[in-house]
C-alpha cells in the first residue's frame, strides 16, 4: 500500500464509524477501529460485524450494547452467536441454530431458559444455602478477646 491509500483508508474508517467524535468514543471503548459488514444483533443489543479482508480470527467481532457502558463481558454473548463468532459455523444463528428452531416451537418455550450473563462478583450472584453447622466462626472484630494479656 502506498502512503496515500493508507491515508484514504484511515479517513474511510473514520467515516464508516460515524465521524471523528464517534470514532474517538468507539476507540476509547473498544481500543480499535474497524470497518465491516453488519451481520446481525442479539437479544442483549450486541451488534456483530464481519470483514473477510482481516486475518482469520480477527475478521468477526462484536460491539457490545451501549447500555452496559464499560461493564461489557464475554458472557453477554448469546450461545447462538458464540458459534458464529468463534468460527464453529459460517451460518448465521437464524439459518443454522437448533436453539433458534426450538424457540419457534410453542411446546419448547416452557422449559427452555433464556441466556443470562455470568453474575459472579455482583450483588446478584448465586450463593447456595448452607445446611451444615460451621466449625469455625469468623471474628467480627467487635467482641473482646478471651485470651488474658500478661
TrEMBL record:
Pfam families attached to this UniProt entry: NDUFA12 (PF05071)
Top-level taxonomic group: Eukaryota
InterPro entries xrefs: NDUFA12
GO cellular component, one term: respiratory chain complex I
Keyword annotations of the record: Electron transport, Membrane, Mitochondrion, Mitochondrion inner membrane, Respiratory chain, Transport
Name assigned to this protein: NADH dehydrogenase [ubiquinone] 1 alpha subcomplex subunit 12
Native organism: Papilio xuthus (Asian swallowtail butterfly)
Quaternary context: Complex I is composed of 45 different subunits.
Residues that span the membrane, as ranges: none
Membrane topology reported for the UniProt record: Peripheral membrane protein
Subcellular location: Mitochondrion inner membrane
Family assignment from sequence similarity: Belongs to the complex I NDUFA12 subunit family.
Biological-process GO terms, alphabetical: response to oxidative stress
Functional summary from the UniProt entry: Accessory subunit of the mitochondrial membrane respiratory chain NADH dehydrogenase (Complex I), that is believed not to be involved in catalysis. Complex I functions in the transfer of electrons from NADH to the respiratory chain. The immediate electron acceptor for the enzyme is believed to be ubiquinone.
Protein's UniProt keywords contain Protease: no
Amino acid at each position: 500500500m502506498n502512503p496515500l491509500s493508507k491515508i484514504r483508508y484511515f479517513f474511510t474508517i473514520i467515516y464508516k464509524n460515524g465521524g471523528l467524535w464517534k470514532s474517538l468514543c468507539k476507540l476509547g471503548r473498544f481500543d480499535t477501529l474497524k470497518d465491516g459488514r453488519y451481520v446481525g444483533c442479539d437479544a442483549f443489543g450486541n451488534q456483530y460485524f464481519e470483514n473477510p479482508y482481516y486475518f482469520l480470527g480477527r475478521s468477526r467481532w462484536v460491539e457490545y450494547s451501549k447500555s452496559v457502558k464499560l461493564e461489557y463481558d464475554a458472557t453477554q454473548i448469546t450461545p447462538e452467536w458464540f458459534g458464529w463468532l468463534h468460527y464453529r459455523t459460517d451460518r448465521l444463528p437464524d439459518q443454522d441454530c437448533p436453539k433458534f428452531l426450538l424457540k419457534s416451537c410453542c411446546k419448547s418455550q416452557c422449559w427452555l431458559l433464556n441466556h443470562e450473563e455470568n453474575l459472579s462478583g455482583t450483588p446478584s450472584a448465586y450463593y447456595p444455602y448452607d445446611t451444615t453447622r460451621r466449625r469455625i466462626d469468623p471474628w467480627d472484630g467487635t467482641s473482646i478477646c478471651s485470651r488474658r494479656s500478661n
